[in-house]
Structures are given as structure tokens and as C-alpha cells.
Design a protein that fits this description.
The protein has 299 residues and is mostly helical. The chain folds into 2 domains: 48 residues; 240 residues, MetI-like fold. α2 packs antiparallel against α8.
């Protein structure tokens, strides 16, 4: 009696496993198809509406907005990545379980759920009004960093906690200090997951508009022959106003009635933004894969 019953259970388990595998493949395929359709539609619309003036660094083109977007994301990552990774290391390796750790965890979770427009208003109050400054890229980068910090902190913490205990115990058994173990063993081992967090944080910066509306401003005045970083028209001056591509799209769609090409500009800017995010993600993945091969002695 046992063999037929056991055989039925095994057959049932196999059918359930096959069915659930099909469900998960379908869900994954749906999201992949959705991404391809969405990206394809946006890119095709942008290419259809393309004309050469859009590639210029003048008021007719989007070159300045493209540079502002890349520069602002760079500034935000310079601020948020060290702080987020350090906070994740503290939460995973140094913080003792207690009321303080619980409070920090709740604070991180609450910060990650804040609407971007609330962060933008906070940035406007603190980074603009309280400092007496005008709209500038640094204020926008700080606002985006606030949005990115919870993601980077949680990603780093989870990556460190998911590592096998043997990594840490083996390193310290060989005489390495706790800090050296973190820097030389733990962080390199969880680097791919940290890079994933950086990609997500950068994607948030590329597409952010609400927080930048109150901090970075909607104007751009760049003189590409002026490299005095203290000048308000220098491209590398972080304290000058800078309209990003996402803001430019919003302006062209809401306030672009005076420009007959506003729809074409918005469509092409959207296509460039999509390609920029995808390109950054692929580049970061390739870098992560290269680092893994190097660490594994495969290069």
C-alpha cells in the first residue's frame, strides 16, 4: 500500500512544482514583456520626433539638461553611497539589539516611504531657505540622497547579514581585526548586491522630478568656455541652478505651449532618459561581473 500512495504523493508534488514553475516564469515573462514594450514605445516615439537641434547644448537642445542629470546623480551618489554603506555596516556589524537599533530600523523604514515631494519641500526649507541660497544642483543632490539613503543602508545591511558566518570567523581566526575583516572580506563578498543598491539609487536620481522641482530649479545657464568653478555659469559649479531631463520633460508637457516643438522635445528627452538608465545599469552589471571574476582568480 505504501508504494502506490507514495507514488501518488510524488506525482502530485511534481505537478504542483511544474504548475508553480510555470506561474513564476509567466510572472517574470510578463514583467520582461512590459519593460520591453514600455521602453520600445518611449524610444521609438523619441526617435520619430528627433531632429538634429535636439543634440545641441543650446536652448533648442537637451545637451545641458543631459549634463545636469548626470552631474546631479554623480553628486548624489558621492554623498549617499559612503553614508548608506557605512550605516549598513553599523546596523549589521556593530549595532546591538535594543531600543536604539529598533528605533533606527523604524526610522530607516519610515524614511524610505516618504513621498518625494515631501522630501523636496524639506530640501527647499533646509537647503534653500535656511541657507539663504538659490536653487542649485547641490541642494537637489542632497534631496535625492535623502531618498537613496534608506535603500543603500538596507541593501548593505541585508547583504552583510546574508553572508555565511564562515567568512567572518575564518578571517578573524587568522588574526584579522574586525574592521579589516569587514573591508577585506565581507564587503568584497557582498559587492554585487551593494552595486545593485547603487543602481537602484542612481535610477531614482535619474528619474526624480518632484524633489528637484523645489531644490535644483528649472533654469540652466551654462557657458562651456567658462571653467571657473566659482562662476554661476561654470558647468562644474554645483551651486548653480540646473534643470534635469526629468524636469525638462515635465516643463515641456505642462508649460511648453509657447514652444511648438515641446512634444517632440519631451518625447526625445524621455527616450534619452530611458537609454541612460538602461546603459548605466548594464555598465554597473558589467563592472560587478568583472570584479567578481577578478576576485575569483578568473582574470
Amino acid at each position: 500500500m505504501r508504494d502506490p500512495v507514495m507514488r501518488k504523493r510524488i506525482d502530485r508534488a511534481k505537478r504542483v512544482d511544474s504548475a508553480m514553475t510555470g506561474v513564476f516564469y509567466s510572472v517574470g515573462g510578463f514583467f520582461l514583456l512590459l519593460l520591453l514594450v514600455l521602453a520600445g514605445y518611449i524610444i521609438s516615439k523619441g526617435l520619430i520626433d528627433f531632429y538634429p537641434d535636439l543634440l545641441t547644448f543650446t536652448k533648442k537642445g537637451i545637451g545641458n539638461q543631459f549634463f545636469n542629470t548626470v552631474y546631479l546623480v554623480f553628486l548624489s551618489l558621492v554623498i549617499s553611497v559612503p553614508l548608506g554603506v557605512a550605516a549598513g555596516i553599523y546596523m549589521a556589524e556593530y549595532a546591538k539589539q535594543g531600543k536604539l537599533t529598533t528605533f533606527l530600523q523604524i526610522s530607516i523604514e519610515s524614511l524610505s516611504s516618504l513621498p518625494s515631494i515631501v522630501v523636496g519641500l524639506f530640501g527647499y526649507l533646509v537647503f534653500i531657505l535656511m541657507t539663504g541660497a538659490k536653487w542649485n544642483l547641490m541642494a537637489g543632490a542632497l534631496a535625492v540622497s535623502i531618498l537613496s539613503l534608506p535603500l543603500l543602508t538596507t541593501t548593505t545591511k541585508d547583504a552583510l547579514l546574508s553572508l555565511p558566518k564562515g567568512y567572518k570567523e575564518g578571517s578573524m581566526a587568522l588574526g584579522a581585526t574586525h574592521w579589516r575583516t569587514i573591508v577585506k572580506v565581507l564587503l568584497p563578498a557582498c559587492l554585487p548586491r551593494i552595486i545593485t543598491g547603487v543602481i537602484l539609487a542612481a535610477g531614482r536620481g535619474f528619474g526624480e522630478a518632484a524633489a528637484l522641482l523645489y531644490t535644483a530649479g528649472q533654469s540652466t545657464n551654462i557657458n562651456w568656455s567658462n571653467w571657473d568653478i566659482t562662476s554661476p555659469t561654470c558647468p562644474l559649479n554645483p551651486f548653480r541652478p540646473g534643470e534635469t531631463l526629468s524636469l525638462h520633460i515635465w516643463v515641456m508637457r505642462t508649460e511648453g505651449s509657447m514652444n511648438p516643438n515641446s512634444a517632440a522635445i519631451a518625447n526625445f528627452s524621455s527616450a534619452v532618459l530611458i537609454v541612460m538608465v538602461l546603459g548605466f545599469s548594464l555598465l554597473a552589471r558589467m563592472l560587478s561581473k568583472r570584479i567578481n571574476k577578478k576576485q575569483g582568480g578568473l582574470m
